[in-house]
Inverse folding.
């Protein structure tokens, strides 16, 4: 099978920094969600597992790629903007961003078999910037303010 492109809404995008939660070497990953009929047909045709958890993600697929090759060499993940320029390093891709993802479908026989989508690159078409959550709060005038400094003495 050749490389494919699928389009949808990004969720849990780990394409700028590898996710090391389950693999200490790191893993690139992204969920391509809210698949329309055309993109769902592409995923089905490639044999990818289409999931639906009855939430905002709708029908989705998960694409992954190891952050290192078998010999330990770091593997880059190309991330581009809508004009195919390199994605800026000071921004983060938040849930709800519209993306195109390039992947390679590959069959496997372990664990009952199936097809895994190996992520090759991401193009961000419409960015919803991830801000980390704390910036979502509004400033509350006359509210509690931490009067402590960063130099908190500890008993020695």
């Amino acid at each position: 099978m050749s490389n494919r492109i699928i389009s949808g809404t990004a969720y849990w995008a780990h394409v700028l920094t590898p996710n090391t939660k389950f693999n200490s070497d790191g893993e690139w990953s992204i969920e391509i969600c809210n698949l329309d009929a055309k993109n769902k047909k592409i995923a089905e045709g490639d044999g990818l597992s289409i999931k639906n958890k009855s939430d905002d993600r709708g029908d989705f697929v998960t694409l992954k790629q190891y952050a290192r090759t078998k010999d330990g060499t770091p593997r880059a993940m190309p991330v581009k903007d809508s004009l195919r320029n390199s994605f800026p390093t000071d921004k983060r891709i938040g849930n709800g961003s519209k993306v195109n993802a390039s992947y390679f479908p590959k069959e496997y026989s372990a664990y009952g078999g199936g097809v895994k989508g190996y992520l090759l690159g991401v193009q961000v078409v419409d960015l919803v910037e991830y801000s980390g959550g704390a910036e979502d709060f509004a400033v509350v005038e006359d509210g509690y303010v931490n009067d402590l400094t960063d130099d908190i003495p500890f008993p020695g």
